[in-house]
Design a protein that fits this description.
alpha/beta; Uracil-DNA Glycosylase, subunit E; two-stranded antiparallel sheet; 11 helices; binds uracil
């Protein structure tokens, strides 16, 4: 249905409406104004309230979390399926606050696997382990003995992961229950990547994997982790704060290089 044009409530014909419009344009009218005044000072209507989010499912507690992690990790048949299973696991509260799931980087066929602590801010932003300042130093250290995460040759390559795949808030130390719930995944990760040699980078992986702390005493002493030779080393973040410790780190790198027959 077409409505007849109206002017101040009076019905008018089309020709009159056009003439009125022309006259208004001549008079400088450049804006259409409503019949009823609008009070611009009136508070705007409140924005629509978004629907309440679904309540998060309750996390299983304690041993149940670890048992659930063990069951999931055991289902993984390769690294890709492990990553998907671990990403979907809700037993670690950190997942809710982190931006990225940080699984691994480098060449999974590498003979050497480096295990660090947890993603930091840069790793959380990029979704890759060891890409911040400490990661850059790690790359330089590895390059000094001819290793690189980008190398296609397993002899020259490095594969890198962390005990935790989610960033702890403000980079705080991982809590024991976060480590416990991550360990079944890390154990399966090592099993599937099957490295010949492992480097445990810093106190957290030593505590998580060996059950021992005191990296300044442990460093440089070959031990066994996940049934393979493992070398505890001082974390590159520590080396950034304590450059004098680079001398021992260099000795450890040479030892690692010799073990790999480089
Ligand atoms: N420190 C770690 O232990 N891991 C990272 O990925 C980054 C910093």
């Amino acid at each position: 249905m077409t409505m007849a044009p109206r002017f101040r409530g009076i019905e008018i014909d089309g020709a009159t409406a056009l003439a009125l419009l022309d006259w208004q344009r001549e008079m400088g009218v450049d804006e259409a104004i409503l019949d009823a005044p609008v009070d611009r000072l009136e508070a705007p209507p409140p924005p629509p309230v978004p629907a309440a989010p679904e309540p998060a499912p309750a996390l299983p507690l304690g041993d149940d979390v670890v048992a659930a992690a063990e069951r999931l990790a055991a289902q993984a048949t390769d690294l890709a399926s492990l990553a998907e299973l671990q990403r979907g696991f809700d037993g670690i509260e950190l997942k809710r606050g982190a931006r990225s799931f940080v699984f691994a980087d480098g060449n999974p066929a590498a003979r050497l696997m480096v295990i660090g602590e947890a993603p930091g801010e840069e790793e959380d932003a990029q979704g890759r382990p060891f890409v911040g300042r400490a990661g850059q130093l790690l790359d330089q250290m590895l390059a000094a003995i001819g290793l690189s995460r980008a190398a296609p040759d397993p002899d020259r390559a490095v594969y890198i992961a962390n005990v935790l795949t989610w960033r702890p808030p403000a980079n705080r130390r991982p809590e024991p229950q976060e480590i416990a719930a991550s360990m079944p995944f890390l154990a399966r990760h090592v099993e599937l990547a099957d490295p010949e040699v492992i480097v445990l980078m810093g106190n957290t992986p030593c505590q998580a994997v060996l059950g021992r702390q005191g990296i300044l005493r442990l460093r440089g002493q070959w031990t066994e982790a996940f049934g393979r030779p493992a070398l505890p080393m001082v974390h590159p973040a520590y080396l950034l704060r304590n450059p004098a410790a680079k001398r021992e780190a260099w000795a450890d790198l040479l030892d690692l290089s010799a073990r790999l027959g480089l």
